Amino acid sequence: MFTRNCLRRSTQSIRRYYSEKAIFLDQKQLEALEDLQSVPLTNVSAPLSEEPIIRNSPEAIFGKKRIGTVTLPRPLIQGIADLIQESDKRLIRTDALRLYESLRSTSRITNDINNHDNDNRRHNNGRQATIQEPHTLAYGPRESIAYTAGVLPSTYAATLNVLAELSQRISNFSPKSILDFGTGPGTALWAAQEVYSDLKSYVGVDLSEDMLNIAERLQGNISPDANIEFKRYLTVVPNAPKPDLVISAFTLGDLPSQALQQSIVDQLWEQTGDILVLIDRGTPIGFSNIARARQYILDQYKNNVHVVAPCPHDKPCPLLYSPEAKPDTLWCHYSQRVQRPPFLMKTKHSKFNSEDSKYAYVVLRRGPRPKTESSHAAVVDDTTVTIENDFSKIAYTWPRLIQPPLKKHGHVVMDVCANQGEIQRMVIPKSQGKTPYRDARKAAWGDLFPHPSKNKVVTRVSKGVNMDDDM
Q1: So which residues are the signal peptide here (predicted)?
Q2: Does residue 221 lie in a domain region?
Q3: Could you give the 3-state DSSP secondary structure of residue 229?
Q4: Number of domains comprising the chain
């Protein structure tokens, strides 16, 4: 009874509230409302500005490296899903775990197991951990399927990021032919198709015949009419036209010795008509492979080659060749997020639909390094007009963030690779100006930063000195 009375009172109070708040319109007001509704929306002047809101300077936008989360093309996902459907899924999971363990075992610079015993006991509550001996796998039929189902998405994302940056930095570079050494299931070829639409000739080279079989099968889903040739060996044909773009992605780390790496890099550069792209895993050993390959080509061909990215200089890498270098704790690498397709989530038994692909890379181009010029002014019809240079030339001297910036209250701290060949620490305070400070707040790991530091820069790692004659 008490509850029923309470409900009756609350209902009456609600009715009383809305009756007091009700608005009654007369006939004139109703007609005015009808006339207002009949006015087209296009004739109503919008108070909002139609101009887009620019949150970064044009230079900072040009230097951005981020491309957002990468999603594999639907035909590629469908081709891999069909391949998995015809295979034993339990074996794919088992082989993928063996493949991941192999990659982890070869990611350390030092392979002396005894040096890690104390650390392992400390991180395992006093129990001695079992450290896997460094080893690589031969890619047979099972390993090739496991690689396609468990590794291809991350390597595809990293390769796509590098090629997207290359197309942004050198907009007039439109390759007609491409060579992918260590193509595996054709990963770099499929990524190149997403970036460059004028490609006419494709060549994929891989020692594993099972990998090439998978690549040929995926071609049927992605581009069945493309002129793609898959072969097991890199053949040299004298006087034959060289590919405009040569890529070797995640291959150097699988080679058993530095001498073989040097030989392969030398052959790849001889095959390069314009640009060579080298990518490896974002581990200390992967970075070391890329840095040594970079230095070898710069030493051998000197004034006939320059670095496009990521380095703003052609000097020895300070993170490997400087006396203060500690490549096992600080190395040059970057990250790209990729959306995991359903088959990858099932292979890894993961509930998360994204992962980060860490990688190290270098982009080398034939010819001397472009000379940069500062912007200047011209007089046109008695009016002073500022003429801005092409960012693609000026960007060769911009420092690059090698780590995520530290965004403090009123200032931003950035560790960058500078064009002097050093690792420097820049501090961009709010007092430096609205545009530099806003660009610094929006800067991210891997971006080129176009503004100098107002404060004195601090050298964290000095210039590198190349004391190695070999890689």
Answers
A1: none
A2: yes
A3: strand
A4: 1
**For residues 361 and 275, what is the distance between their CA atoms, to the nearest angstrom?**
13
φ and ψ at residue 122, rounded to 5 degrees: -70, -35
119 domain residue, yes or no: no
| Separation between Cα atoms, residue 230 and residue 223, nearest integer Å | 14
Q: How far is CA 351 from CA 72, 340, 346, 354, in A?
A: 18, 10, 9, 9
The region, left, alpha or beta by phi > 0 then psi within -120 to 50, assigned to residue 301 is: alpha
Q: How many CB atoms are located within 10 Å of the residue 4 CB?
A: 8
3-state DSSP assignment of residue 194: helix
Retrieve residue 342's tokens.
């359903």
Average pLDDT over residues 360-374: 86
Question: How many angstroms separate the Cα of 335 from the Cα of each of 65, 175, 306, 361, 446?
Answer: 10, 26, 24, 11, 8
Question: How many Cβ atoms are within 10 Å of 42's Cβ, its own excluded?
Answer: 6
Residue 413 bridge partners (DSSP): 406, 427
Q: Could you tell me the sign of the dihedral formed by the alpha carbons of 323, 324, 330, 334, in that order?
A: negative
What is the arithmetic mean of pLDDT over 289-303? Answer: 93
Q: Which domain range does residue 333 map to?
A: 74-109+134-366
Q: How far apart are alpha carbons 236 and 242 in whole angstroms?
A: 10
In a domain, 8, yes or no: no
Tell me the Ramachandran region of residue 147: left when phi exceeds 0, alpha when psi lies from -120 to 50, beta otherwise: alpha
Higher pLDDT: 106 or 233? It is: 233
Q: Residue 86 is encoded by which pair of tokens?
A: 């015809």
**CATH code of 265's domain:** 3.40.50.150
| Mean pLDDT to the nearest integer, 152-156 | 95
Neighbours of 410 (CB within 10 A): 8
pTM, entire model: 0.81
The CA R_g of the chain, rounded to the nearest whole Å, is 29
Is the pLDDT at 114 greater than 50, yes or no? Answer: no
Q: How many helices (H) and strands (E) does the chain have?
A: 16, 15
H or E element, residue 160: helix 152-169
Provide the pLDDT for residue 236.
77
Confidence at residue 135, expressed as pLDDT on a 0 to 100 scale: 72
Q: What is the mean pLDDT of the chain?
A: 83
